[in-house]
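Posting for a labmate who doesn't have an account.
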Amino acid sequence: MEAWLKSLFTSILVLLIVVIILKISFLYLTPFIIAIILAAFINPAVKKFETYTGLDRPFAIFIILIFLIATIMLFLLSGIFQMYLEVNTLLKKLSDYNILDEINIFIKKKSGFMDKQSSISLKL
């Protein structure tokens, strides 16, 4: 086998192994990645809160996390409430708009048209 072909197969095999390892390990590393991102996100707020209030770092972290969780819950609940209102409005409007009546009228018009055509063709 040529050297470049051997190198290509080796590179593809190594890349495949790395992808499989990352795919499997990502399932187990996800909580740690989220924790690192969260810690990096709240660190400046915790430092400012510590300096302004003079509280210990664990207590400052606890207060900031409670505030963050409450804010996220507020956004989620307001979004769910708004979706509930919109779905209710949609259901009220759909009950006023009766599509079945319009379909029946359309069918009657078309069938009446077809009856007139068939009667004309029979007379001829």
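Reply:
Got it, the structure tokens are right above this. Residues 3-53 form the longest helix (51 residues).
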